Fold:
Amino acid sequence: GSDADNDLYINQAVVFIEDAIQYRSINHRVDSKSLWLYRRYYSRTCQWILSLTITIILALAFIEEPSSLTVTSDVRYRPPAWNPPCGLTESVELLCFLVFVADVSVKSYLIGWKEFWKNKWLMAYILTLIVSLTDWIVSLSFFCTESLRIRRILRPFFLLQNSSMMKKTLKSINSTLPEMASVVLLLAVHLSLFTMFAMLLFARTKDNQQDKEWMVYFRNLPDSLTSLLVLLTTANNPDVMIPAYSKNRAYSIFFILFTVLGNLFLMNLLTAIIYNQFRGYLLKSVQSSLFRRRLGIRAAFEVLSSLKEIPANAQQPYVSAGALQQVLQKVEMDSRCKQAIMRSLKMCSCDQLSAAQFQKLFEELDKDAIKQHPPSPEYQSHFMQKLQFVFGHPYFGYLGNVVALANIISICVVLVMDADKQPSERDDFFLGTINCFFILYYLLEMLLKILAMGLRRYLSYPSNRFDGLLTVILLILEIATFAVYGFPHPGWRPEFMGLLSLWDMVRLVNMLIVFRFLRIIPNMKFMALVVTTLLDLVKNLRAFAGILVVVFYAFAITGIMLFKGAVVPLGNTSVGPTSSWNIGPTTLMTLLITFQGKMCFHGALLHLLSVNLICRWAKIYFVAWWLISSVIWVNLFVALLLENFIHKWDRRCHRASLSDIEYQRTVELMFRDVLEEPTEEELMEKLHQHPHLQLCR
Structure:
């Protein structure tokens, strides 16, 4: 009947609009039952269950054998890790696999058989499940005693395939690899040439005292190559050149040339190429997302124009405003966007919407999320108006910043004076007194700002919420200190009472006071720009971070399988039968001593190679980790950081002050100014290719 057809068209339009909001493909089944299943699958509950399942199966590695999940990481002192009985983690795994089987089954059904064979991710999903279930059965047949579990390395795939943005980012990275490979090849040539030069320069002589450089770093080709590769990370600089430099200062020219060409030129050239290429591919990915959004909106228009209430002899297709309102009531979308679209529809004051008008209404989805702050209270009293003007003025905030700076300086002075004193010699009277004074000022400042701005307007600013929360915590800690130890007085010394000693509580208060000084950031425009750039990266580049988690997890699981039992406590020269590589017992101690406090993780891994503490084949693992994590991934992060910062820097003059309006941007909005709108012909051609939707025209 016509009513059933109309309901179907309405539901199709609802799903297409939701697809457009989430940048999803519309190439799925559109019959009534499939639409019901589709909306249930993408509901918050189902997606939350799927995300929880992925988190659980990834977290199993922390308790599975061989696990090192103990309080201390020192192999000399840590107790044996808890080893779950056979079948416990396997049962949890099976439940997770069942959820994934249901997930891939629903996805495969919804897109249809023809689309399934075009979707490489779904086929890889099924293959991963088959391999994982096979490995799970093998594990149970060996009563969980097998040393190799392939399914553990495959677990990150479940996280990867569940995010469309993560898959787009990975596709962009994959497209950038050819350009990266050219520079990496140039780095390899650079490394090889200097390795040959080094073996010629530091060849063995008859004098053993003069052969320290050859003996330690350039004894053979693998050692020479490894030494220079570590030097490329600057982890063994200047140690690698000291023996040769002691013999002849001119040898330093070799190492300077190698470092300048490798680090200053080639590595920075790699960053420039990655920035240029990856930005282009990411732009293409965002362009395809925009096309998906426009296609979803146009598909909704086409199905709504097929409603029975619309005359069949209409010259141009149109959608009634009532039908659109009916659709909007069912669509799950941000309330801000929905209200803005409804307002625009009322202002349009037309009963019929053309395709262009329909598309223009939903351009609200592409706009920045603007957060307007509530108005300040209006006082009738002239005296209250003056107070509101004084304490709501920016200069009052500047005064608070000056007071906070004075608080920081006073804490630094006390810490310098008491640095060499024993705990029994310290007198905390002065520090306790100034803390009490400043905390009372912070409380007064917060109350006066609330009086001037009103509570709702005060809490609408993130800086005020940060400031107010820390002020309340400081006040609670100060009251607790007075309740336990009394008011400050001369000779006020730390004593242990309750959960914390007095000194611990005073230190905690001082740390919070130092942390509170970050309130100055919104008042410094350039610093605020840098901080908002970092916050945008944290909020919007979850796909990038997700791929980073995938890489870390895969390498961590591989490392566990390869080097299990290789590190043993000092003095124990026997390595258990589970060891895959014969790493000496002094590995950790050598690592700690040779780096002399350098926080260079990738260099630390590569340094193990240069001291011949592990099997030479293990070099492949560590070099691969360095290439992927440091050379490629760090440069990708720098490229995205630069893109976000440059975008904000270019727009800073075209925006209102951040104190009045807050703009919340997404990755798609970063490139909005340079994206091209798809033409009507492109949209209609794509719609006619839809495998499950039959258009009337």
